[in-house]
Amino acid sequence: MLTPGELAARLNKLVISILLVGHQKCSPEWHQLPRSIRHNSVWLIIKGKGSFTINGKHYPAEPGKLFCFSPGMIVERTTDPEQPLEYYFLRFHYTETYEEKEQWIYRNAAETAFPLEGMYTVNNTPQLIYLFEQLDILWKRRGHMTAMRRKILLLELFLTLIQDFRAQKIAGDTTAAIELTQDYMIGHYQEPLTLESLAQMAGLSVSHYSRLFKKYIGYSPIDYLTHLRVDRAKELLVLSDYRLKLIASSVGYTDEFYFSRIFKKVTGVSPRDYAKKHRFSPLMDC
Q1: pLDDT tens, 71-90?
Q2: Taking the model in full, what pTM does it have?
Q3: I want to staple 81 with a disulfide (CB 3.0 to 4.6 A). Which of 28, 197, 218, 250 is the partner?
Q4: What does DSSP assign to residue 283?
Q5: InterPro entries in the record, alphabetically (predicted)?
């Protein structure tokens, strides 16, 4: 899939002419047998369930799914009889026309593929439904200013799609960045990690990083790191005879007294009391 920026660049070079706009509610028995698509079209599913097959590949048809069909595709479409599909559709022609280095470039649809093809998941469905509704209303009217308004709405529809894809990409990149720092903490909890260094690793500001980390993980970054250290300290207290100072140092604390305060704050008991309660006795069965 093209990046949002690449998609915007490609769409900016196209002149798009609307052929048909509509809103359909399928009957429970609706089923279109495999057919070769003749026109470019975009379908937004708003209700119900179904299944679309594009060039032999199956896709779920459900609210929040947007399908972009291109000429030559072999498509089969069917609805769930208990939850019939409802959708908006837009059929269009296009040509590529743009100026480059003071020269106009022209390419017809056969020479340049439309940059959207197949199935996409969209999050901002309400805004897309609104734009399709307005296009559907304007399609029933005539006049030069109405035609201009349709063009503006069509561009707004594609811009909304690009913004939706961009928001999804940022969210995905952010989640990956949060998981990267989470994994780093698991492997380096004994090192002197700081909130600033973790935020820098994620490529985010400290406040934004802290907020997102808590949203995705359930703990603040420092609380998460603290629990990692305390959990490892519990293991050492139970399974070894190491001195408290050495255990504190091995989990990232240079001050054993500070470590003891943190440990008690998290567990409710001091490290020594925890060790007495949980350490295995040689006389006990394992």
Answers
A1: 999 999 999 999 999 999 99
A2: 0.73
A3: 28
A4: T
A5: AraC-bd, Homeodomain-like_sf, HTH-like, HTH_AraC, RmlC-like_jellyroll, Tscrpt_reg_AraC-type_HTH
